[in-house]
Write a structure and sequence with these properties.
two-stranded antiparallel ribbon; 36% strand; two-stranded parallel sheet; 4 domains; disulfide bond; 6% helix; mainly beta; 464 residues; 4 helices; single chain
Amino acid sequence: VALGNECILCSDATSRDGVTGVANCNKCTAPNSAPGTATCNTCQDGYYKDQSNACQKCTSPCATCETSATQCTSCPEGKYLNGNTCVEDCGNDKYADKQSGECKTCSEITDCTACAYNDDLHLPICSACDNSKVVRTELDGSTTCVDLNTECTTGGAHFKDDSTNKCLLCGDNTNGGVEHCKTCTAKGQCDSCVDGYVKTAGASTCTACGANCATCAEVTKDKCDTCKPGYFLQGGTSPGTCTPCDDAASGIEGCATCTFSGSLTCNSCKPNYKASGTGSVTCTKTCEDDSACGGTAGACGATVVGSDGSMKYYCSHCGESTKFPIDGICKGDSDKGSNQCSKGVCTQCADGYFLYMGGCYKVDTEPGSLMCSKATTAGICETPTPTAGTSLCRGQLISSSPCWGAGTPLARQQAQVIMPRPTSGSRAARRARLHQHHPRPAWHQRSARPATAARNLPAAGTAA
């Protein structure tokens, strides 16, 4: 409600400056003058507007209602709106539509008398028909009611089973059909197979196409007509061999889906790559872990400078709670060895490893060897590599050597990155000197590791 220059909540019934709202009102119209009461237009969820302009509570099991407490307009989770009431079971001639939260009639499928909602297909599946019709399941999983004698075999994807009076898919091998068969002339008589399979010469059987083929005419890997997503026809001609979009020899690094028309075009990138450009996109690696540390639930925040000077990114937190950053890659229990890890991060490392950004790294294997050459038995880096411009102290990186972080907050220690020591006079050296006097804030490269991991580390500034 707007009164002069002041806004008052429609639900504020305490009377402010002579204007009173309506309890539990969601939208209202202000009175013409003060003193006065707002006119409620709609009530909050769980309430309805009565004839006296008051909002009254709906009764169970309604989630929302109108005109009266028992006239439901929506239902709580697990119940469905049937008319103006909420029910758990819609009955045989109706099905519970989970998309709308309502009971809908099976007759939406012509002549269907009994059905149930299929969660995978997101549609009702008929189980019984009237008017002497039978259920026919289509190739996409949907159902229709057809006349067994005149409509069953229309389209060629079904056969009539006279012994059971059923209309069955040609590929229904549990009831006399041929597995993976698409069209047939009679029970057990396959004419053509579904995509990815080819009819065996001289037999009514379907055999899988060669590796990575979507469709084929012959069962060999170099006779593909079309390819599965993520692959392309080598040379762009068919029949041919299907090659991965990111094939090292002829593909594009990091490419997830592609097309070939004269030249290879990348359409989208893998999860651990970033797409840039238009037309044929360029894929830039953003994480050394192929799963991108488990997707959005994980974090690829452990930065290491590679032997070629390029920045590389490793896992600092794994999206799957049963995987942990070992050498920067999310691995399972069988690979963590004696390292102490839980809930997607490591908190203490075993002999031969050191702790960095939520993960345990071997000192004698990249990327660990790029940062540290010797670790204590407690899993703490003792001797950083000579090329490192910063030191490792108690498993954390600090701004200078040897462990100058006596007064450095732990957050700042976690924010540091191991960089190669720049040569004197270089631009990198000047930038390093600038950062020494004006260090980057702690949020610049904050670790994704939970606070519990940090609390298990010795205090900042303790000698390594």
